[in-house]
Amino acid sequence: MTKICTQTNVAETDNSAVACEKFISTDCIIHEEAISYLGLPENSSSSDVIEATTLSLIDVRNRTVVLETGAVKTNGVFDYNDAITPSTPIAVTGGAGYTFLTNDGQGPFTNISYPPEGVTKVWDGVTNRFDFSELTLGSKIEIRLDIEVTTTSPNTAFDAALELAIGGSTYDISWINSFQKTAGVQHIVVASFIYIGDENTRANPAKFKIKSDEDISVKIFGWACYVNLY
After folding, report:
1. 61, 87, 105, 224: which sits with the fewest CB atoms below 10 Å from its CB?
2. Is the pLDDT of residue 116 over 50?
3. What percent of the chain has pLDDT over 70?
4. What is the pLDDT of residues 170-211, one digit of tens each?
5. Which domains are seen in the chain, by residue range?
């Protein structure tokens, strides 16, 4: 990435020069191609650009390791089982918007013994969010969401989505759309996939969330994640 900072266009002996990092990209001319590749908004600060560039270089390093080592495990599985919500379900208030789903990863069926090479995790049970920062651009992640929803009223509609790039340019991918005619317990298992198409998706966390038009409660049995590195 080429960056020309108008703020540093002064004599070296001029102590009035101000560090470029204190100015947004309207003060520092940054090539549009770099901004687009890094997945940053137009008004990103130079420190944002530096951070995104560093993460991009890490991605290049990871891909280089894969190429140089030859036969490596590019596929792997992480299965995260929750220990809390099966006994203490999440209460979702009808009509109140989305509620994030949690998973501490401490359940007895958690299995992280088969990771792909160079990847230690894709979920953080402490922060309750997906972490794709160790994946290479172009990687694919299949996620099997396993939950139990208890409806309290007939004709209840609820939906779940995966919110990606939290803290960046956020976007949602729909995961579940359900309409239950009768009140009761519904065990739902749905698998779908995402891919790491840009730095915005890779460098920022993601979370599952659910909303309903009537009160419901949710148990999270977990999510199994199949990773295919690019």
Report:
1. 87
2. yes
3. 79
4. 999 999 999 999 999 999 999 999 999 999 999 999 999 999
5. 3-69 (no CATH), 75-228 (2.60.120.40)
Give the whole-angstrom CA distance, residue 99 versus residue 50.
33
HEC secondary structure over 8-74: HCCCCCCCCCCCHHHCECCCEEECHHHHHHHCCCCCCEHHHHHHHHHHHHHHHHHHHHHHHHCCCCC
Q: Measured between alpha carbons, how far apart are the two ends of the chain, in Å?
A: 23
DSSP for 128-139?
TEE--TTSPTT-
**pTM across the whole model:** 0.69
Q: How far apart are CA 205 and CA 135, in angstroms?
A: 12
Task: Tell me the HSE value of 225 on the side-chain side, using a 13 A CA sphere.
Answer: 27
Q: What does the pLDDT average to over 152-160?
A: 96
Report residue 71 CA to chain centroid gap.
28
Residue 82 has pLDDT above 50, yes or no: yes
Q: Which two tokens stand for residue 85?
A: 């919500």
- The residue to which tokens 């295919």 are assigned: 228
